[in-house]
């Protein structure tokens, strides 16, 4: 990873979520550099492991991580790491979570049950987090209060709608995470 000697501080955050929730797309929408993506074709080896029933058009998947960068000021850079969403890759989380200040947990409101193992991992690593409810074309919009209740989130956990394809919406989720991290420090 290239470290700019003019930057005095860098911050690492994770973008996490279950399989096919939009993590790679999210990082692509906020990164100021061409994101590093470890996307590979979904093969027959994933049969029985990856449930494609909700995402029949998905042809690739992240097999290691995604990485992006965002300069917040002349001396502060945000490094954004996306984790793979499948259970079989969760061993990578330990390394990716080292040094991270927090996480944006992306969720699909129609597949909330797939979010519980992700929340368990984020909490096991002690990461403060914000939940971004990804909005998908043609899908029912669920009130954020219902998502909070369904996920049994504490009142202190920020939850925001987020269209990962839209840079402004994605940036707002990132701003919410940064504000949450700052408030948890003070």
UniProtKB/TrEMBL annotation:
InterPro entries: Gliding_Motility_GTPase, Gpn, P-loop_NTPase. Gene3D superfamilies: P-loop containing nucleotide triphosphate hydrolases (3.40.50.300). It comes from the Bacteria. SUPFAM superfamilies: P-loop containing nucleoside triphosphate hydrolases. It holds the Pfam family ATP_bind_1. CDD domains: Ras_like_GTPase. Keywords: GTP-binding, Hydrolase, Nucleotide-binding. Belongs to the GPN-loop GTPase family. This is ATP/GTP-binding protein. It comes from Streptomyces cinereospinus.
């Amino acid at each position: 990873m290239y470290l700019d000697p003019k930057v005095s501080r860098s911050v690492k955050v994770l973008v996490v979520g279950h399989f096919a929730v939009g993590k790679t797309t999210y990082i692509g929408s906020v990164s100021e550099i061409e994101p590093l993506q470890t996307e590979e074709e979904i093969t027959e080896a994933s049969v029985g492991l990856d449930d494609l029933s909700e995402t029949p058009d998905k042809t690739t998947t992240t097999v290691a991580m995604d990485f992006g960068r965002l300069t917040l000021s002349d001396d502060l850079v945000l490094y954004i790491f996306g984790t793979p969403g499948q259970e079989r890759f969760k061993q990578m989380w330990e390394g990716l979570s080292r040094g991270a200040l927090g996480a944006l947990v992306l969720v699909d409101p129609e597949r909330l049950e797939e979010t519980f193992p992700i929340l368990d991992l984020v909490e096991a690593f002690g990461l403060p987090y914000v939940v971004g409810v990804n909005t998908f074309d043609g899908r029912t919009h669920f009130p954020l209060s219902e998502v909070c209740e369904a996920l049994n989130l504490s009142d202190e956990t920020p939850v925001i709608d987020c269209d990962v394809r839209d840079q402004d919406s994605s940036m707002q989720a990132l701003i919410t995470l940064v504000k949450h991290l700052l408030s948890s420090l003070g």
